[in-house]
Amino acid sequence: MRILLSGRPDVVEKKMVGGLSFLVNGNMCCGVTGTALMIRVGREAREQALREPHVRPMVLGGRSLSAFVCVDPPGYAADDALARWVQRGLDFVAGLPDR
Predict the structure, then answer these.
(1) DSSP H helical ranges for the chain
(2) What is the pTM of this model?
(3) Which burial class, exposed, middle or buried, applies to 39 when counting CB atoms under 10 A from its CB (0-12, 13-18, 19+)?
């Protein structure tokens, strides 16, 4: 994930939500928690993402987050799969105002 986001001046790496998060223009985009990827896909795309293999709701403090999903290792083991998931997060935050 670091390699995919390197070279972007708008990305900040930060410890948050029990893992390592990557913020783009101040908006959380993606990260790692335990062995899972956390990807911000947005509320509208979340249900569709949850139907994909190895994807589950992101739970924080006992509640499911409406705009995020977690992808377990088999879902991002291939480099191209990891790149696609990171791009989904980037695509979502591209539509958000800078923070």
Answers:
(1) 2-5, 43-50, 79-94
(2) 0.94
(3) buried
User: What is the pLDDT averaged over residues 72-77?
Assistant: 98
Q: If you ran DSSP here, which 8-state letter would residue 20 be given?
A: E
The Cα–Cα gap between 85 and 99 comes to 23
Long-range contacts of 1-5 (CB under 8 A, 24+ apart): 1/30, 1/31, 1/32, 1/37, 1/82, 1/86, 4/82, 4/83, 4/86, 5/86
Helix (H, G, I), strand (E, B) or coil at 19: strand
Q: Hey, what domains does the chain have and what are their CATH numbers?
A: 2-90 (3.90.1150.30)
How far is the C-alpha of 20 from the C-alpha of 37, rounded, in Å? 10
Mean pLDDT across 1-19 = 92
Q: Which residues, in sequence order, are CB contacts of 92 under 8 Å at separation 6+?
A: 29, 40, 41, 42, 45, 67
